[in-house]
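hey so u asked for the seq, here:
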Amino acid sequence: VFQQNEQDGRHPHHVSIPRKDLEFALKAMRSFADVSEIELEKIYEAATRHKQQRHLQAGDIKVGHFYLHGKNDAKGLVRQVISVSNDGLVTYSNLSGSRQGTTATLPIDIFARWAKHEVIQTDNGWTIAASNKR
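ran it, structure tokens below
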């Protein structure tokens, strides 16, 4: 369904579903979807963009937990929630980035929009929490 790059076997837009896996999945569905290859690619890319733009909701924010903005790499900013007041203000500590070691306060809805993932600390750094892998 997707054309693959000869060098690395990936689609030019870095679609991460190998052709053989996609074909298998479509055959296993035992149904018909009248969608062209180009339309299917656009659907996949839109879903991927949507996933990347998602953020947490205010109800997801918990005291003592850690949150990541952006990618789970050395450049990702990690904050730990210290407290949430009755009027919805989050006090947090910056654990990485240019403001590492400082604390600040934000309304919980703004903090939740900032947070892309809840993370847990492991021996190898930060890992996206299983409950956050949507």
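The mean pLDDT is 78. Helices lie at 19-29, 37-53, 108-114.
lmk if thats what u needed
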